[in-house]
Amino acid sequence: MSGTGRRVTALLAPALFGIAALGASARAQEAEAPGTPAAEEAPAPISIELNKLEAQDGACRAYLVLVNPAGPDITDLKLDLILFNQDQVIERRIAVGLSPLPTGKTTVKLFDIQGQDCGRVGSVLINEVMACSGADGEIPDCTKRIAPTSRVDAKLFK
Questions:
Q1: What is the DSSP string of 51-105?
Q2: What per-residue confidence (pLDDT) applies to 143?
Q3: Which residues, including other chains, have CB under 8 Å from residue 135's CB and lie 6 or more apart?
């Protein structure tokens, strides 16, 4: 490199470094600024656990444990569920109502799936949140807030 090229590089390097540092500082301030999406905490998850599947008079009884730790109170929660067998072939589709779901309380909901053999349930998909509302109307991002888990061999997922 010529002497002039080295001098230009030597002069430009600190300037480029300074510009990069300013950009990084501005991004960090934006992330920390109140009211920006990065600074706002995501709403607490609504946990839904598939806790138990039990044979019951020609049906499969499903027990779900739900927790809404941070609110708001959910007065209407309906889910569209798809049941798959162990080979991941769809067995059936059902809609379940799981309300009310008060803030800060653990709730157990159970429902019977008529004609379903519990031993054939390989997994359960939360296909859609059909309703999720509280006293003030629809609750935004309800689907994103749902955190499914399972204590049985059948997986609960979304």
A1: EEEEEETTEEEEEEEEEBSS-PPBSEEEEEEEEE-TTS-EEEEEEEE---B-BT-
A2: 94
A3: 72, 73, 75
The residues, ordered by sequence, that sit 6+ positions from 141 with a Cβ below 8 Å of its Cβ are 43
Look at the alpha carbons of 158, 128, 115, 63 in this order and tell me if their dihedral is positive or negative: positive
pLDDT at 19: 40
Encoded amino acid at 93, one letter: R
CA 64 vs CA 48, 99, 123: distances in Å:
6, 12, 14
Beta bridge partners of 79: 96, 129
**Res 149: pLDDT:** 98
Average pLDDT along the chain, 158 residues, taken 10 residues at a time: 50 43 45 51 92 97 97 96 98 97 97 97 98 95 96 98
pLDDT of residue 3: 55
Paired tokens of 6:
């080295």
Here the tokens at position 67 are 């927790």
Q: Which residue type, as a one-letter code, is found at position 98?
A: L
